[in-house]
Amino acid sequence: MSNRLRHADVEVGTEIPERTFTVRRLDLVRYAGASGDFNPIHWNERFAKSVGLPDVIAHGMFTMAQAGRLITDWTGDPGAVVDYSVRFSAPVVVPDDDEGTDIVVGGTVKKKHDDGTVTVALSARSGGAKVLARSTAVVRLA
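and the corresponding structure tokens:
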């Protein structure tokens, strides 16, 4: 795996360029099928609004996966993730149109450890709101 990111090439403050992931209702239906999470807040607008949501919202784990995707693409190795945690701070509202909504994810290396790992602080926002808080990943680099 010569494409893997090397520990020696990363410093505290290294930025992971932001990526934008578009989410459409169809993505939520596919995710529901893959995850088994068929909660109607993720596909039924009427139900979502009846429980106080502005519209259908993306699964929290789907949102978390997009931030994780940023990390695995950056490292070049999905197996490099040692630890990953987030707090959900706002829902990702997904309108019923062909446009969907965007989740914008970025990251910054906050710590570089002697054991070949780094700690990355992640940011994720959608519709102007921060959708993940206290999001960190520890990754082992080559």
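(Above: one complete record from the training split.) Strands lie at 15-23, 81-88, 101-112, 117-126, 129-140.
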